[in-house]
Amino acid sequence: MIMGRWLGLLLARLAQAVPVLLVVAALAWALGLVAGDPLAATVGLDATAAERAAAAARLGLDRPLPEQYARFLLRAAQGDFGISTRLARPVGPLIAERLPATVELAGVAFLLSLAIGIVGGVVAAVWRRAATTRLLMVGTLVGMSVPTFLTGTLLILLFSAELRILPSFGRGQVVALGGWTTGLLTPGGLAALVLPATTLAIFQSALLLRLVRAGMIEALASDHIRFARARGLAGAVVLRIALMNALVPVVSAASMQLGTLVAFSVVTESVFQWPGVGQLLVQSVAAADVPVIAAYLVLVAVLFLAINLAADLLSVAIDPRLRVVDGARRWRTSPT
Amino acid sequence: MADIADMKAESLGIGARVAGALLAVIVLAVVAAPVLAPQDPFDIASLRLFDSLSPPAILDGGLMPFPLGSDGQGRDVLSAMLYGARLSFLVGALAILMAALIGVPVGIAAGYAGGVLDVALMRLADAQLAVPSILLALLADGVARALLPRSWLEASAIPILVAAIGLARWPHFARVVRTGARLHRGRDYVSAARLIGLGNFDIALDHVLPNVAGTVLVVAAVSLGLAVMDEATLSFLGVGLPVTRPSLGTLIRLGSDYLLSGEWWVVVFPALALAVPVILANIVADGLRDRLDPRARPSERLRA
């Protein structure tokens, strides 16, 4: 029965995702058509009319627009987004070789913020009135108000310029594993990861901490937790049950955070000159490199749709109430 | 839904009121920048290259025309900060105005008309809300840069930024206005207005809009600090305001070149000029939100 629900959810979500993807892809395609001047990119600006016509025929630009769009979709599905005007290289491999750096940075930051957010949130909910908890909550407000690029800049000032204990730019030494490069296996690579990952995690952990705390306070006050306590269940068991209830909104928030991490990795990568996809995007925007911007547009759409889907499936896995209650009624409407 | 008449100052917490007062002082100082600033930082003739990178005046080696020190081009850091904050606040305010000008009509149309239009518009808003606004603003900025001729880019930096941030933030307005419009659609006075023969447009303008105005103001207040942060981030990334007319974000980017060589004042003062008003604005916005929706969780408020 659970499998059936999951399958239904999966299919419903996929059906909603396809139109969104088609619209975003149309945007990316139109951008390339209007602003990219793919003809000038292939034959140069001083080509004769005949050369331009030949190139147009070769590129399929003399075809009706719907057919061109279909071709764009077909090539995009194979990872072919044309050639970067700034670097004169195919966009697909360009992004692929920078992906490991971004995935490692965002992944480490995500785990870091989850750990800080959940542990801190539970502590802040259990010792609600402690002075340290109040201080922690003020700290989270500041952490959420300071822009990411500023956090990074100040961390560099402190740890690289004053204390001189951590590197301020680059990935350090990386090891190639097949097509993947990793900085997680060398001391230099790990040291280089500390400041960017912390910068990226600060805002996320502040947000998660507040969410977990609010959810835990609500869950600890609910009837079934009070009943469990009254039955004499051990404190740790009660906490675990309460945390499971509190985690449902956290899962959807954490998934949004995963998206936010990708967005702010753009900023962090620029601060720390981290050779990832985000830095590539900023350089491409500055140079109006249309094929890269278009590819990123589609990539972001795919990523966010996938994240939302994963979050929905995970929510069902965590909270037993979601499996019983009719799918349309979410956890908020169920009696707690 | 709080009406604007309910939003008396006394109902705000003491923290929010103090923050609001401090913020007002800062905004006044920034508006009065031409009077307060020792130097016009946009005037190349006033730059004093020989006195570049001199430390704040109270430190050893500090020179008096530079109370907070000078940067790598011999620009007074205090003056650059005041003028930079002026640009940052201006872009932030215009961007929020644009977001409201898109979001409010969309919200009223969706909430008042309902049906297919409502579903379509709100789907669009939801889809856009799923993606962080800074990423959208960056992509919109990239599109604008691709569409405009290169020679226009520097002159049109402010309109590009305003459009990029405004386009990224309209769904917040559309969402709350739609809720308000739906609430008022069924009220007796709307039916009465229809009975006396007013058209949909007139009803929306004369009866629905005034009722959602308070909510719109609160959303604008909440969004303002975020829009200023968006501007600073884009300028920091080098796709915002140019070096010749630096905003706070541009100043911090330029200053970060001196991070490792010890000239900390070039970065730290502009950073404070950005962070302090944004933190104050967030405290005020938090207080306003409490008034509007006492049940909203603190964690759901910031940087939505």
Tell me about this structure:
The complex is a heterodimer of chains A (336) and B (304). By secondary structure, chain A is mainly alpha-helical. Chain A has 13 helices and two strands, in the order H-H-H-H-H-H-H-E-E-H-H-H-H-H-H. Helix content of chain A is 75%, strand content 2%. Chain B has 304 residues and is mainly alpha-helical. Chain B is 66% helix and 0% strand. Chain B is built from ten helices and no strands. The chains are: A mainly alpha (336), B mainly alpha (304). Chains A and B meet through helix 1, helix 6, helix 7, helix 8 and helix 10 of A and helix 5, helix 8 and helix 10 of B.
How are the secondary structure elements laid out?
The complex is a heterodimer of chains A (336) and B (304).
Chain A: H1 2-35, H2 38-43, H3 49-59, H4 65-77, H5 91-126, H6 131-145, H7 148-162, E1 175-177, E2 180-182, H8 187-220, H9 223-230, H10 235-271, H11 277-286, H12 290-318, H13 320-324
Antiparallel strand pairs in A: 1-2
Chain B: H1 14-31, H2 33-36, H3 77-113, H4 115-130, H5 133-147, H6 157-185, H7 188-195, H8 200-236, H9 248-255, H10 265-292
Helix pairs in contact in B: 1-3, 1-10, 3-4, 3-6, 3-8, 3-9, 3-10, 4-6, 5-6, 6-8, 7-8, 8-9, 8-10, 9-10
Q: Mean of the pLDDT scores of chain A?
A: 79
CATH superfamily of chain B: MetI-like
Number of extended strands of chain A: 2
**Unreliable spans of chain B:** 1-10, 294-304
Indicate the multimeric state.
heterodimer
Number of helices of chain B: 10
Rounded to an integer in angstroms, the radius of gyration calculated over CA atoms of chain B is: 22 Å
Largest sheet of chain B: none
**What is the approximate shape of chain B?**
elongated
- What radius of gyration of chain A results from the CA coordinates? 24 Å
Q: How large a portion of the residues of chain A is in β-strands, by DSSP E?
A: under 5%
Question: Percent of residues of chain B in beta strands?
Answer: under 5%
The structure class of chain A reads mainly alpha
SSE ordering of chain B: HHHHHHHHHH
- Percent range of helical residues of chain A: over 70%
How far apart the termini of chain A lie comes to 24 Å
